[in-house]
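Most newcomers find our protein records easier to grasp once they have seen one. Nothing more is needed to start thinking about how sequence determines fold. Here is such a record, shown just as it appears in the course material:
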Amino acid sequence: MDKQNRKAIIAGNWKMNKTATEAAALIDELIPAVKDATCEVVICVPFTDLTTAVAKCKGTNIHVGAENVHFEKSGAFTGEISADMLVDLGVEYVVIGHSERRQYFAETDKTVNKRSRAALAAGLKPIICVGESLTQREQGVTEELVRMQTKIALNGVTAEELKNVVIAYEPIWAIGTGKTATAEQAQEVCAAIRKVVGELYGEEAAKGLTVQYGGSMNPKNAEELLSKPDVDGGLIGGASLKAEQFAVIVDAATKG
């Protein structure tokens, strides 16, 4: 399968880090560090940093994403943010179904699907997260689980909408733990994701889908992970908070 058919995307997931003031300083460091990237560069930042990030990144090659979105357009959902609100700010991407959202905030496969469809309907590009726990990997159900999560997340998503979808494989056991899936493990699961999308939408659609790896990708392992034929980018946690580390990963995607 030819990686040239797909867009490599390196997306930083800042999580609950950086005030707006701190975000401005980090973005000032990032802009020159990634200006020559040939892959797509995205920073997914806390809601309070979005206005700052959009303003700072205007006219640069850095795209801005949010870390979550609600599935209703408006209403009595105190503390929630709608897709239309994000679009109005100038946001392009949104992370959906991150394992931390599933673990701590009761996200389910069903709500991931609802959020993804709401994001797509508003014109956002969802980065949909799937992945298994250590127990599930040890039980040998990784592929079945990831296939199920992918199918449910894409339920009702049209072939045209799929062109704006990114799927991130993030093994839960490798997030923030310093453990990383081997390049072979990452390739195996990313290929399985592409396979199930091919079954749902056809091989051409699957060839065009960007599949990221997320889970302790860092400057030391990025090049090997990104060299794999079905790994098209990364959803980066800790390393996205340091401009020089993030830039190394972006450079590895440019090579890969």
Q: What stands out?
A: The beta strands are 9-13, 40-45, 62-66, 93-96, 125-130, 166-169, 210-213, 233-236. The CA atoms of residues 202 and 230 lie 16 Å apart. The chain has a mean pLDDT of 95. The longest helix spans residues 183-201.
